[in-house]
Amino acid sequence: MEAQVRTLVDISGSKAAMTGRANLMLERAGWASQVFLRYDRDATMKIVDAVADAAFANAGRFAEMAVEETGFGVAAHKKLKNEMTSHALVDFYRDQDYVSPRIDEARKIVEIPRPAGVVFALAPSTNPIATLNFKTIMALMTRNAIVFSPHPAARKSCVEACRILEDAAVAAGAPDGVIQIIEDPTVPLIEEFMASPKTDVILATGGTAMVRAAYSSSNPAIGVGPGNAPVYVDSSADLDKAAKRIVASKSFDNSVLCTNESTLITLDEVDQRLRRALQQAGAHICSNDDVDRLRTYLFHDRGFNIEAIGRDATWIAGECGIKVPGKTKILVAPITQIGIEEPLSKEKLCPVLAYHVASSRSQALAQARALLRLTGAGHSAAIHANDPAVTLAYASAVESYRVVVNAPCSQGAAGFDTNLAPTFTIGTGFFGRSSIGENIGPHHLVHWTRLAHNTAADEVMGDYHGLRQQLDGPLQQAPSDGVPGLSMTPRTQQPAAAAIDAGMREELRRLIAEELRAALKT
Q1: Does 258 qualify as catalytic in the annotation?
Q2: d(CA 409, CA 405)
């Protein structure tokens, strides 16, 4: 797999050719986003529902395809994630209107939605289809066009899934070009898309280097940092429930979600009982020799061993020469310290859970804070406790914007076992050097122009009900060759206001077509 990724990343054309390719796709997406602006909420939601239907119907197929292509995770669990990012995601936001003007008569303010325009989105290899579904639906709910760059290791499954979503959207009335994907991503080509002035916002989900590149692109970016979630099990917790939830979370999709628990911290007074509860839930508690073998296998001079990502616990144990029962769900590795000297206290996207016993609650909270400062600041943390004072103290100590209480962290922080917003893009905020600290949702892809009227009692705001946003020009359809403006077939029957002079329109179309043709020849 490494060779496959390396080959895909190293392939690149000339600078001019890559610029031309990026311009072509982004111009087409830009035209589609301008057409999409004319759609009302009913037309928009018809498209969203059609895409959600297609994503749900193909959830199992693409789960299996992604596992086969990448070697990461569990197909049955990926199917669940793919389903959760279809109907369930749409239903969560269904009552939110990101299309119609908002009228606040009491404050004499009218808000007009302004979509970002063209969203450039990155999809990781660990959760490729769920991320594709999630970002596509977010973009469509807010009338944005989206261009995807799949991870090279998940290219085939992403390209095929994206085409199905695109076909569903267009069949439901979406403008051509509203969903696109780069079929042969390379690092230089991705950089062209990220730096292009035709890209309006970047949704970066992936490795630290790629997220930092997005923030350095000169374009607005919404990026996420790495996870490394501590989970603290307090003496006030129900230990059996805590153990079952932690094992279920850490084994879910073989722990490829960045919200999964990385290191369990507990107290000496409950240590032995918790170990027994973990074993009963399907964990193997490693001996000192087992821990040494795991440490050597998982971490080397170049960092984390990517061969272990998304593999199941028995496979990893076999590679390390550790004998475990065939039904083992996770490997628990007791460690005596947390910090840079102990690599097992870093993020591990596999079902290996570090286990540390603190001498007191205050030390446990300090160790959890240190874990996040090591890596994963701002991301996620979890606690199992039945004392509100303890949970509040823990949440106040850790530098995290999500603290999951008495629930699996993998699903809970992502909003699927809690009432947090469902997401596959986690904002890490100021702690994690990210622009947003909450779970990313469609509201992050639309801003609002506010008409603020004079507050004086003798100044009447006027009646804005029933009015639509006025947009010039007829609706246009981008043709299959990617050159917008050459087809004038209307997509809906909504009337357009103040048509552009015919001669000026023809000149604009000619200039745009010439520019794109010139880009194709370079």
Answers
A1: yes
A2: 8
